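> Could you send the Glutamate racemase prediction when you get a chance?

Sure thing. Input:
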Amino acid sequence: MMANAHETKGPVAPALIIDSGSGGLSIWGHIRRHTPWLPTLYLADFGFYPYGDKSEQEIETRVRHIVEQVCECYPAQLIVVACNTASTVVLDHLRARFQQPVVGVVPAIKTAATHTKKQVIGLLATQGTVRRAYTDELIRDFARHCQVIKVGAPDLVQWGEDWVRGRSPDMARLRGVIQPFLEAEADQVVLGCTHFPLLKPFLYQLAPDINWVDSGEAIARRVAYLLQAQQSEGGEESTSHRAFYSGDKQDSEWERGAMALGFSSAEQIAL
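Output:
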């Protein structure tokens, strides 16, 4: 059903987590574990999905618009841009526009390069992230001593969406995607799209000797640090987690999937 606009009530203002789809749910899971007292609002912007196909100007305009709209109805104390593509485009704009802290996503190349024992690491991401100059800068800054195998895998975005809706990926096709890492004997592979950690159980099933690295833990620690003064005001037993999604059509499968993950409600919202 369509959500009505009203302020979230309670002693602790929520954190707003946004993505063009379900990928940010992987970030939300880490945040929930690190700050169980913190209410959250999750927005899957299916009305503009996927961000990776849009120009930087389109992404900047859209994300600023939806943050303004959501925060007007549901005042948030912190904003998490849970999308690699959007983070490279909008963080400075949002920080200039909003008083709340804004946290973004950076591919965990530094983490992988620090922990590799073979000096061979991988990057599994969307084609846009693989080609982006920002990614090359991260590799130069933190993984200069490593061989870096880059694989663009747009299919995994949809497979992550399918998983939320109760469907498993094609394991043979998934193995084909990660084959370059197996052949190179990489011991650390960075999941450079927030959709991809949703598939971690399947990745470990196919390649248990690889450490599949994502940014979720680091983001959750950052959120916990920024909001540590609020912790005493919240109570885990009264914490609410609300999921919203944009788009023209009701998505009952996604609503059920979000509820199964632990949201107290999942609703379509007009933006």
